[in-house]
Design goal:
Lipocalin
């Protein structure tokens, strides 16, 4: 049986410098990933909004935007990040890196995190 998901309020203190700091609450961080199509950078702002920028390798055309994000801590190294409702299941493999799986998509993303 699955354990209930713990909701982390946005006012939770950031534990900078600990292995579980991003897994605890990624508020105030940025993460990026690269794939065959290009590179994406997301910034998770403390007010619950995010901004992103993406550059395509095919035509070198930038794309950017913003949205609303939420995060639910599942365990010490797992969490569910929602970007405008799109679910990203995160598993932290190191203090600053997570593997993300988006349900319905075949691939996984390796995301590198850092504090803003």
């Amino acid at each position: 049986m699955l354990s209930p998901v713990k909701v982390v309020p946005s006012q939770s203190p950031i534990q900078v410098g600990t292995e579980t700091s991003f897994a605890h609450n990624p508020r105030g961080s940025r993460f990026d990933y690269k794939d065959k199509g290009g590179e994406c950078i997301y910034k998770l702002h403390a007010n619950g909004t995010y901004t992103f920028a993406a550059v395509s390798q095919k035509n070198n055309s930038p794309e950017d935007g913003w949205g609303i994000w939420t995060y639910q801590k599942v365990s010490a190294k797992k969490g569910v990040l929602k970007l405008n409702g799109e679910v990203w299941n995160l598993t932290f493999t190191s203090p600053h890196r997570a593997v993300a799986k988006v349900p319905g998509k075949k691939r996984t993303y390796t995301c590198d995190f850092e504090w803003l």
